[in-house]
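Support case: BIS(adenosine)-5'-pentaphosphate complex. Customer-provided input:
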Amino acid sequence: MRRPLRIVLLGPPGSGKGTQAHIISELYGVPVITTGDILREAVAKATEYGRIADGYMSHGELVPDKIVNGVVGERLSKSDLENGFILDGFPRSTPQAEFLDSFLEEHGLKLDYVIHVTLDDEAIVKRLSNRRSCPNCGEVYHLVSKPPNKKGVCNKCGYELVLRDDDRPDVIRNRLVVYREKTQPLLDRYMEKGLIKEVPGDYQMDRLPEQLKKVLG
Ligand code: AP5
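Agent response - structure generated as follows:
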């Protein structure tokens, strides 16, 4: 039996974390935990924390650590993670990284890799204006590099695709500022632990699975 795989994906908004997370998940049968998706679902359902999160997300700010740590702690305690997990979009701040370290230590677990997905700012702004997402199943497309089979319609569930509210250029710019200030410092933390593996966010899409296999050994 394969040993469990525990991975964090770090990188600026729109660099391709979610895309790579889902490829790794298919390759190794490990579930993806995407904090952005969990929060967007809470916003759509207008739950108590969804209403709070909405005010931060629509401006490209981080949702408070206390809320996000609570959500992730609950998800990591579920029983479907015996093969490990892929954290897409968590941690994003020092308090979140400290929370993850304590959680892992308490449960006698360790991270295997932190994948740093790299892409420059101009490419990010251009790319996100071409991203379309399915509000029903969360599938992500790109009008040029990964178009849906039928224009504007999700291949998987047939829902109409949308441009995410926070994919407007002004909000993207703020997400990039927040990334540099709050999340980028985590790279040093994981570099010191020897966990970082870099993968370019513009790696040729059809060769990504092969490349990720190589990176993860
Ligand atoms: P979240 O949803 O996590 O957004 P993000 O980190 O900004 O990342 P994205 O989902 O925008 O992009 P991605 O890197 O996954 O790229 P993707 O694969 O889609 O968070 C949203 C908000 O929620 C945050 O701003 C914050 O408010 C809140 N939040 C979430 N987590 C939080 C936390 N931990 N703490 C506090 N607040 C939190 O790719 C982008 C596009 O490029 C797609 O169209 C894709 O098809 C295309 N693409 C990908 N790879 C390639 C490639 N190799 N070649 C060509 N095209 C590609």
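The longest helix spans residues 169-183.

Case will auto-close in a few days if no follow-up is received.
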